[in-house]
Amino acid sequence: MAFLKSLRCPRCGSTALLPILYGFPSAKLLEGMRSKRLILGGDHLIESCHVWGCPNDRCGASYRFFPYDRVDEWMADQAKPQPAGPHYTYEL
Asked: Any idea of the CA torsion for 10, 47, 87, 73, to the nearest 10 degrees?
């Protein structure tokens, strides 16, 4: 886990990436979201869902796969227009 926390967001560089989880959240998952250990992505998963995200509200970048794993695919993904703001979180 320390290794994952050492990797910063490739877009803004300010914070470590967090996993984006999908499905109906349990109390533990809601607490994880509140403490900024994970991002809740919604109640259903589709094939192209993003699974890593930046918790920085000003950045809001999200990725379909861990950006430090498959660099060539990550670069192609970054060439596509990114949504403005964090679209994969919701406030309670």
From this structure: 20
